[in-house]
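Retry 2 of 3 after timeout on previous attempt. Resubmitting structure tokens to design endpoint.
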């Protein structure tokens, strides 16, 4: 897993380095103003039946053109470009599996096709629209506990949260995404936990050239 993350996410770590809370929050608000409606849940649900995943490449079936508008097809194809650019970085010497939800994951020892393993401390999967990250109940409790030494999760800085996450064993690129969402969504990244953990859906900003995550449109909800 560590070998996969270090190779697979080398580029995303560069683009997701967080400098200051104010700068990222401003950028997220700007994105939200310019891209409201991009990769909405409605569009994702509408598109999912037409997504195919073969040889670690996301594609859109021809039938999609009969049910998606020209603008919708444009957004979806840009998102597919982003996902496929990330998938290209997967090393050849690791085993990858296609899950039951058309996502990519490193194959576990039993080669299960389950998308997220909710018995794990944390987990994630790559989908055509972005990343789904799972933080377990134990992990969210550990985040709360560590943040108490700093003044509480509500008052914690992005840098401190990043340090906490990496100290708990999360790879840098996942920590960066969680911090980016935290700056926009606040403490909901832990308080959405209802005892079973938290999901974070981080969508592409629909710009294959930039490959950035649209934190403003991210979703945080209980597992």
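Retry 2 succeeded. Sequence:
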């Amino acid at each position: 897993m560590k070998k996969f993350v270090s190779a697979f996410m080398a580029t995303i770590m560069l683009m997701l380095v967080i400098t200051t809370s104010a700068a990222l929050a401003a950028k997220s608000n700007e994105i939200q103003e310019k891209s409201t409606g991009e990769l909405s849940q409605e569009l994702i649900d509408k598109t999912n039946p037409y997504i195919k995943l073969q040889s670690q490449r996301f594609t859109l079936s021809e039938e999609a053109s009969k049910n998606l508008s020209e603008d919708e097809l444009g957004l979806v194809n840009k998102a597919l470009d982003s996902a496929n650019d990330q998938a290209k970085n997967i090393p050849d010497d690791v085993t990858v599996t296609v899950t039951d939800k058309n996502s990519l994951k490193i194959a576990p020892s039993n080669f299960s096709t389950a998308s997220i393993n909710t018995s794990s401390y944390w987990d994630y999967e790559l989908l055509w629209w972005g990343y789904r990250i799972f933080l377990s109940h134990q992990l969210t409790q550990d985040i709360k506990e560590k943040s108490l030494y700093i003044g509480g999760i509500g008052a914690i800085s992005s840098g401190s949260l990043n340090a906490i996450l990496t100290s708990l064993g999360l790879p840098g690129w996942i920590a960066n995404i969680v911090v980016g969402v935290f700056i926009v969504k606040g403490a909901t990244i832990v308080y959405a936990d209802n005892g079973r953990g938290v999901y974070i859906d981080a969508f592409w900003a629909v710009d294959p050239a930039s490959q950035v995550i649209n934190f403003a449109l991210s979703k945080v909800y209980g597992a």
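Attempt log closed. Residues 70-87 form the longest helix (18 residues).
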